C-alpha cells in the first residue's frame, strides 16, 4: 500500500510540474558585447542554436561541448527585481545592471527547469525559439560594486537562470514565453 501511495504521489507531482497558470512575456532584451562594457538594450535579437544571442559575448565564443555551453543565455524573473530592490533598500533596480540577457514576466523560470530527466521542459519564445533551462544564474561579486554592500546576498536565489538555445530564431520584446514538455522519441520511451 505504501508503494502504491508513493507511486500515486510521484505521478501527481510529475503532472503538476507540467502545468503553468499562464504564459510569460519578454519584457527586455539585453546584450553584453564584452566583459565590463555597458549593456545594450535592443527590441529584437537573433537566437543562435547551440551558441546564444547574436551580439552577446557568449555567442561569440565557440564551445568544445556538443550542443554548446549550458550558459548560452541568461534570464531573470521580472517579479524578482522589486525583491532585490527591497533587500538592498532602493526604490528600483535597473535590470541592465544585473547583466542578464532576457527579462521575463509572468512565468516562474525556476519551475521551468524540469525535476525529472525523462520529462524535459523547454521554453518556447515567440515564433520559433526554444531554450532549455540548465541551472541557476548565481550573482557575481561585481554586484557589490554595482548595487552596493550586501547586493550579492540580496541577489542569491533571485539571480535568474542559465539556458541553452535548442532552436534559434528571432526574439522580440513582447514575445510570448510558454513552458512546454518536450515529447520523448519512441526510442526514448522504450528505453525507460
Automatic annotation (TrEMBL):
Lineage, top ranks: Bacteria, Pseudomonadati, Pseudomonadota, Gammaproteobacteria, Nevskiales
InterPro entries: MoCF_Sase_C (IPR005302), MOSC_domain (IPR052716), Pyrv_Knase-like_insert_dom_sf (IPR011037)
Lineage top rank: taxon: Bacteria
Pfam family of the protein (one): MOSC
Domain MOSC: 40-180
Gene3D superfamilies for the chain: PK beta-barrel domain-like
One Gene Ontology MF term: molybdenum ion binding
UniProt protein name: MOSC domain-containing protein
Organism of derivation: Hydrocarboniphaga daqingensis
